[in-house]
Design goal:
heterodimer, A: alpha+beta, Beta-Lactamase, five-stranded antiparallel beta sheet, 6 helices, 5 strands, B: Rossmann fold, 2 domains, five-stranded parallel beta sheet, 13 helices
């Protein structure tokens, strides 16, 4: 009964410890991954917008818009970039990747804005949009929209992987704890049984395996045997004295 | 050393050299033959063949374009090969399927240039594919590989920096869209909306319409897009609703036949009753087949259709080039390449696309003939520039020059009558 209680307490301790580790690691992980990935995606989209803006100058000034469209089509193949549009110096749309058409929210937004904007487009999802001026803005502006849903999915995946790893460690830890507790509990149980037998003064009580152990359990067993022997001799002496009297 | 000794020695040396040459003559001949075969094979010309490389859509929703263009070209090449070829060499087309997608097109081109070592590239289909291939031609410009007569009217292969690496036969999308806009404006339909493919092809046509409208102080009334590869079974209702909201008086479609047919169907179903124009790239016969379901009497969806073409109607048998095309198509009846066929396709007896392929091949043969018996890639451009007022048999002379890399300029307009595309002669009567 006492051993089971010890076992339960140990298991509870293990669970509590791992639970605290898992929770704190997950929170830290969510925060780190979310912050880093979001920053990374924003930086990427800013860089992509800048790259397109730099490459567009020559095309806008010297070439057909088909070449410009071909350029942005290649960039929109990059995962998590969901739309790109280019407006000219008057705000007119020169090229874009929207299907079936340019959303009303974008059509009515400021075409020269280059600051980060969060957009929720009906039927398309949530986006983070960044802009970059072409030729310091005198030739137009490039706008790149990153799908925040996809970013969230990637963050979730990264967190999921982290939690998966922690869960495996937890299971292995619990199994190891059970094994260790059993390893400690079995000799203690034997010792308890031996002590009870000695207390009952059962004849021929002896446990060589227990008495030969070179650890605390062995020392205790030998101590119990010694105390039990002393008590027995003391009671024999007392009995002899009574008889003498 | 005396002068006489020198003379004797020189004479002796000459005799020795002469004897050595006589002895080695058969070997030298062989070496020369080997030497001449190796570079010739390496540039797509053997003793028996001139190999042209073609990457086009032979699968997917636009496969009809690649197949028909190939069939038309194949017909003329078969005719030439049957009559001795070009200086004894047959013209062979090495074909690859790109499904009208840019990445496969780039890979195919690399294969054609580096592995197959073709003499030139011929009959590519599509703007998004060709615009991605053009930089490769610049990269390999030392090899003098040119792209001949791509099936696209886009500007990138008509202007710097890549215009020098391609030769076009057909009129441009700029000319087609300008012609359509001019005619619509003339019948007082100035509010023009555009339905286009969301890629370089669509943008090229969109830019053409925008440019043409600007001349009249007008803007594009509304625009809607679709993704490349859309099928006829797909819905275009959203696009129709977007355009309908802009209250257009005409719509110009810049797309492929499956998507444009779906758009026309949904436009008529949603009561958008305005003329709907398509560019030559659409593949008129395939479009018509989808809209009529093969039933010539079914004009429910085709009454307000008008298609621009860059070749005359194949029904005009009074045109010598058209008659020759029809005769040779009937005689050779070229079938689609079985190796590339992934889906069933029933070829048309005649089509605008195969007629264009036929004319491409006819001009190609003329250029190859002008190269003479020892065709070299570095002589190609010069040979093309010798083409002046060449008669393809369609009533328009073809000329090329350093500043003229497009052979034909004319645009034709056709409407559907009795289940066939016929030349439109009176816009007012038809659409006013």
């Amino acid at each position: 009964m006492k051993i089971q209680k010890l076992f339960q307490k140990t298991m509870f301790g293990v669970f509590a410890l791992f639970g605290a580790i898992s929770l704190s690691t997950s929170i830290l992980c969510v925060y780190t991954v979310d912050t880093h990935l979001s920053e990374e995606y924003e930086n990427n989209s800013e860089n992509i917008a800048k790259t397109i803006a730099d490459s567009s100058v020559d095309i806008l000034l010297n070439r057909d818009l088909a070449a410009l469209q071909s350029l942005i089509d290649q960039f929109v193949e990059i995962q998590s970039i969901r739309y790109i549009y280019i407006t000219d110096e008057s705000g007119e749309f020169l090229a874009h990747t929207f299907v079936p058409g340019i959303p009303e929210e974008i059509r009515t937004s400021d075409p020269f804005n280059t600051a980060l904007v969060e957009r929720s487009l009906p039927g398309m999802g949530d986006f983070v949009e960044v802009g970059s001026p072409i030729l310091a803005g005198i030739a137009g502006t490039v706008h790149v929209g990153m799908d925040t849903g996809l970013i969230a999915l990637k963050i979730q995946r990264a967190i999921g992987q982290q939690i998966y790893l922690i869960s495996i460690i937890l299971v292995v830890g619990v199994l190891a704890a059970i094994w260790f507790v059993n390893l400690a509990a079995k000799p203690l149980g034997d010792l308890l049984g031996y002590a009870v037998d000695l207390a009952r003064g059962e004849e021929g009580t002896s446990n060589d395996k227990l008495l030969s152990r070179d650890d605390e359990v062995g020392h205790l067993a030998r101590l119990f045997l010694y105390v039990s022997g002393r008590e027995e001799s003391e009671s024999t002496n007392q009995r002899d004295e009574v008889q003498r009297r | 050393m005396k002068a006489s000794d020198m003379k004797t020695m020189t004479r002796r040396a000459l005799i020795r050299s002469g004897l050595a040459c006589c002895a080695l003559a058969p070997w030298l001949r062989t070496l020369r033959a080997v030497g001449s075969t190796v570079p010739q094979t390496a540039t797509g010309v053997t003793d028996t063949e001139i190999i042209l490389g073609m990457s086009a859509a032979f699968s997917g929703p636009s496969r009809g374009l690649g197949i028909e263009l190939y069939r038309g070209a194949r017909t003329y090449f078969a005719h030439v090969n049957q009559h001795g070829g070009i200086a004894g060499r047959e013209v062979v087309i090495k074909t690859y399927d790109d499904g009208y997608q840019p990445d496969p097109s780039v890979k195919n081109t690399l294969k054609l240039m580096l592995q197959d070592q073709v003499f030139l590239l011929f009959g590519y289909v599509g703007t998004p594919t060709v615009t991605r291939v053009l930089p490769m031609l610049k990269k390999f410009q030392a090899r003098n590989i040119f792209l001949f007569f791509p099936f696209t009217g886009a500007q990138p292969q008509r202007e710097p920096p890549y215009g020098d690496f391609a030769f076009n036969l057909r009129a441009s999308y700029r000319q087609e869209t300008a012609g359509l806009v001019d005619n619509f404006v003339r019948i007082n339909r100035k509010r023009i909306a555009v339905f286009y493919q969301a890629d370089a092809y669509g943008r090229s046509g969109w830019a053409g319409v925008r440019r043409a409208l600007k001349r009249y102080g007008e803007q594009i009334a509304g625009e809607a897009t679709y993704r490349r590869g859309e099928k006829f079974t797909g819905s275009m209702r959203k696009q129709v609703e977007i355009l309908k909201a802009s209250k257009p008086e005409a719509v110009i479609c810049i797309g492929s036949y499956a998507a444009c047919a779906a758009f026309v169907r949904d436009a008529v179903d949603l009561d958008l009753r305005v003329p709907i124009a398509n560019l030559s790239f659409v593949g008129s016969e395939n479009l018509l087949k989808l809209l009529t379901g093969g039933n010539a009497d079914n004009d429910h969806y085709t009454r307000l259709l008008v298609n621009s073409q860059v070749v005359p109607s194949y029904e005009e048998v009074s045109i010598p080039g058209v008659k020759e095309y029809r005769d040779l198509m009937q005689r050779h009846d070229p079938q689609p390449l079985q190796d590339l066929m992934k889906e069933a396709y029933a070829p048309f007896a005649h089509s605008f696309v195969s007629l264009e392929g036929f004319l491409n091949a006819k001009l190609m043969v003329e250029i190859l003939r002008r190269l003479g018996g020892d065709p070299q890639r570095n002589q190609l451009e010069r040979a093309v520039f010798t083409v002046r007022d060449f008669d393809l048999g369609i009533g328009e002379q073809v000329s090329f020059g350093p500043n003229r890399r497009q052979g034909l300029q004319r645009v034709y307009y056709t409407v559907v009558k009795n289940g066939r595309f016929v030349t439109l002669d009176n816009w007012k009567k038809r659409f006013a």
